[in-house]
Amino acid sequence: MLIKVNDMVQVMAGDDRGQRGKVLSVDRLAGRVVVEGVNRVYKHVRRSQKNPQGGRLSKEMPVQLSNVALICPKCGKPARLGARLRSDGAKERYCKKCGAAVSEISPAPSRRDA
Q1: What is the 3-state secondary structure (H, E, C) of the chain?
Q2: Do the Cβ atoms of 39 and 61 come closer than 8 Å?
Q3: Alpha carbons 105 and 2: distance in angstroms, whole number
Q4: Could you give the C-alpha distances from 92 to 6, 8, 24, 80, in angstroms and in order?
Q5: Per-residue pLDDT of the chain (114 residues; tens, 9 = 90+)
Q6: For a tag site, which of 12, 70, 76, 92 has the least CB within 10 Å?
C-alpha cells in the first residue's frame, strides 16, 4: 500500500469517478482511504448541547484503495506507484508512467566504519 496521507489522488471508479482530492486518512487494515470532497454523505444529527441547531451534517466516507490512483507530481497524470532501491540504499516511491521519484519510503542505512 503506497498511498499516504496528503497525496493527491484521482478516483478511478464509482459515482465520483474523475474527481481529484487530497488524502485525509488511510485505513491500512480495511484497505480504504478518505479523500477530500469525495464520497460525501449526509449524517442526520439531533439537537444537543454540542450541536444546538441539529440538521444534516455532510462528511466524507472512505473509498476502496483500489479505486484511487496517485497523481504524479511531475507528469500530472494518474499513475501506478512502485517501490525501488536507490544506489545509496534508500527506498523510494516512483511513478511507473514517467519514472520520476515521488517520495522516500525509508532512508539509506547508516554505515559504521570501525
Answers
A1: CCCCCCCEEEECCCCCCCCEEEEEEEECCCCEEEECCCCEEEEEECCCCCCCCCEEEEEECCEEHHHEEEECCCCCCEECEEEEECCCCCEEEEECCCCCEEEEEECCCCCCCC
A2: yes
A3: 9
A4: 17, 17, 21, 14
A5: 789 999 999 999 999 999 999 999 999 999 999 999 999 999 999 999 988 999 999 999 999 999 999 999 999 999 999 999 999 989 999 999 999 999 999 898 887 654
A6: 76
Between CA 69 and CA 18 the distance in angstroms is: 10
Tell me the one-letter amino acid at 1. Answer: M
Q: Within the chain, what is the greatest distance between any pair of CA atoms?
A: 69
| 89 phi and psi angles, rounded to 5 deg | 100, -5
Residue 56 one-letter amino acid? R
